[in-house]
Each structure stands twice: as C-alpha cells, then as structure tokens.
Amino acid sequence: MSRVVIVGGGAAGLELASILGRSVNCQDEVILVDGETHHYWKPRFHEIAAGTFDNDLDTLCYFSHGAKNGYMHYQGWMTDIKREEKQLVVSKPNGETDFVNYDYLVIAIGAISNDFATPGALEHCLFLDSPEQARSSWLQISSLLRSGHQRAINIVGAGATGLELAAELAKVNAGLEPNPHAAKLKINLIEATDRVLPNSPLKMSHQAQLMLEKYNINVMLNTRIASVEQQGMTTSDGLTISADIQFWAAGIKAPNWLKNIGGLESNSFNQLMVQQTLASTLDPNIFALGDCAAIPQGEGVMVPPKAQAANRAAVHLAKSLTGLMRGKQLTPFIYKDGGMVVAIGHNFAISTMMNDKLILKGRVIRRLYDTIFRLHQKTVSGVLTMSRLIIAKRLKCIFQPN
Ligand SMILES: Cc1cc2nc3c(=O)[nH]c(=O)nc-3n(C[C@H](O)[C@H](O)[C@H](O)COP(=O)(O)OP(=O)(O)OC[C@H]3O[C@@H](n4cnc5c(N)ncnc54)[C@H](O)[C@@H]3O)c2cc1C
C-alpha cells in the first residue's frame, strides 16, 4: 500500500488528485492537503475582485468532490517537511500542528505576486494570490464604486493578470455609467517595459493595447514604480500617480517559506528545483509541479508558470506516478506550449497559436478562453458534470439579470 500526499488543490494539484484518486488501486491512498474548503480556478480571480464571478457554479468543494473521486481532502496549510520521517507538517484551521505521513509527496502550492521588495507595496497594494484576497479586493472596490465622484485605481503589471483585471474593472465601470451616484473609475495600468503583455509576440501586445485604449484604460508604459504610498505610487522618475485603490500584479515567485524547505534545492524565485520527471533534485519521493516548481526542458529552457502548463504536468505525473507505484520507471515531462489566450472583458480575447505564428482575436477566441477552464472541469469532474455546468450557466445568463 502506498500513500500519495498532494499539497495544493489548484490547477495542477486538483487535476492530479482527481486522476490519481480514480486510477490507483483501492489499497493505495490519495490525500489532498489544502487550507481552503473550495477550489477556485485562479485565472478567474480578477472576476472575483471585480464582482463578476459566479460563486455557485464555478467553485468546487474538495470534501464532497474527493468522496466521489477517490481522494481525501485534509484541510490545513503545509508549513514544513520532515524528510527523515517522511512527514508533512500541517497547520490545521484551529491553529494546531499535525503531521501527515507520506510515501510520495507532491508539492503544488502555486505562486504569489512578486513585489520585488518595492517599498510600501506589501502595505498599500492589493494582491490576487488567494480567493480571500480577491474577495477582500471586491469589498473595497464595491465600496469605492458606491462612493461616487471620480476615483482612480492603479494596477502595476500589464501581463495577463493585470490586463485581465483592468479590462474587467473597466467593464463593471461602463455597466454602472447610467447610475449618477456611482463613482467614475480612472484605471491606470502601469508597466515597466515598453509594451503590454511583454512576454508575448509584438503583434499581440499591439492588439491588446488598442483594445485597452478602446476601454478607456490609461496604459502607462516605460513606467517603473519605485515606492507605493497609501494614496498613490511614485515612479523612478519621481512622478506621483494618485489612486484610491492599488493592485500589484507584476511578476510571481513561490512563497518565501518554500525556499530550501526540508533541505530541498530551490532557485532565486523560491521555486523547488525538479528534474524533468518532476521528482525533486534531492529526494526521489518528493515531486513538485505548477507555478511553485522550476521544471527544466533542456538548455536553460524552463516550463512557463501558466495554468495550461500546470494542467499538462498534472496529467503527465498522474500517469508516471501510477507507473512508479506499479514498479515502472518515471518518464520525463515534455511540455508543448499550446499558445496563450488573454481575455479582455467578456466579449474579446487575443490568442497566439502555432508557436506564436498565428494571432487570433475576437468573440470566438473569448469562447476559447472559457474552454481552458471547461477542460479543467472535464478532467476533474468528467464530461457529464462539465456539460451540466455549461448548460446551467447558459440558462442562468438568459434568465437572471446581470
Ligand atoms: C488573475 C489571474 C489571471 C490569470 N490568468 C491566466 C491566464 O489567462 N492563463 C494562464 O495560463 N494562467 C493565468 N494565470 C496563472 C495561473 O492561474 C497559474 O499559472 C496556475 O493557477 C498555477 O497552477 P498551480 O496549480 O501551480 O497553482 P494554483 O492554481 O495557484 O493552486 C495552488 C493551490 O495551493 C493551495 N496552497 C497554497 N499554499 C498552501 C499551503 N501552504 N498548504 C496547502 N495548500 C496550499 C492554494 O489554496 C491553491 O488551492 C492567472 C493568474 C491570476 C492570479
């Protein structure tokens, strides 16, 4: 009998727990450790922050899902690993410390925003790293919208996260225009490099920029933030950008406590170093995947921190780890990038395909963006449940007012 303990029920961990739970022998155990009670699809956190997220249809309860899919949910936060004893140290919701034994440990705790030690960022910015942070952002935005007058929101980082958040807020703002008491939002999207979506092809950045301007979003390129104050930010050129609410969405890193945890190797972003098999470089019984792992693909190329990469690594590890438990060798994870889709509001998205050779945009591509979430739902809950959720959502959109 083997016990697989997976830490983190996000894009990677939940898929792995679901596939493994359904496929391992009944004497084997799959345990999913996550401090949350419900799973949220992280690429939709900006919708929670903007108040447009559907809590009923788009979340999943780990406890009941685990019962149907062959894994057990253990509610708690991982704090340490005792490698000698093969034990995970967990902080339970009541504050007590517990120890969970494992034969194989998989770490998939995701990443948090990287504030690059910018003075004041931690104190005065909102982050979209957890459902709780996203919900508390919505509370602040909601009260700002109700406060009337001209208001401003600063968003640092024009990567996918910052851009999707800016567009979602602009949409909410436009929807409230007929209400004379609602605040009018000025949204400043601040980027240190010379274009939005700096890691995407130039043409994609250009198309995204045009769309953002159409949404009246004030895009500030070549603008590096030196410090953040309570009511604004100061750039490296000494310019002050005032705002009522400020978000930080520039770059990611694994949390500081993960660095060298249990004596494992990690990189400068605190990500755990793994081999191409996803086994950690120093311990063959510990694996890592998703945003918290540095996964090599040969010649200095690493797997990017994307939902799609997290999903694919999970599907791969589920098969490879099942094989290992049946006496086979682990197999290397070879990542083939399927392109990138960035949503700008509810009716428009831009995507790259065919190794960035093809750039597509428009309403149909926006449906493709939703497909990535639906494929995740299919992997974790099956095609029937996914179809039922799509139908329920469509009906809700028709019969329920916005
Ligand atoms: C607003 C936003 C928009 C995004 N848009 C896109 C996009 O368009 N396309 C794209 O590819 N990617 C996008 N991303 C990035 C994408 O969400 C991540 O790459 C992906 O979710 C990483 O998956 P993961 O499984 O590694 O981590 P996550 O999905 O973040 O899951 C981590 C899980 O670990 C749990 N956890 C954390 N710490 C602990 C602990 N100590 N103990 C136990 N459990 C723990 C968390 O509760 C969570 O359930 C976006 C991210 C954000 C925030």
TrEMBL record:
Pfam families: Pyr_redox_2. One of its GO terms (molecular function) is NAD(P)H dehydrogenase (quinone) activity. Gene3D superfamilies: 3.50.50.100. Residues 3-311 form the FAD/NAD(P)-binding domain. InterPro entries: FAD/NAD-bd_sf, FAD/NAD-binding_dom, NADH-Q_oxidoreductase. Keywords: FAD, Flavoprotein, Oxidoreductase. One of its GO terms (biological process) is aerobic electron transport chain. The keyword Iron does not apply. Its cofactor is FAD. Belongs to the NADH dehydrogenase family. This is NADH dehydrogenase. The lineage of its organism: Bacteria, Pseudomonadati, Pseudomonadota, Gammaproteobacteria, Alteromonadales.
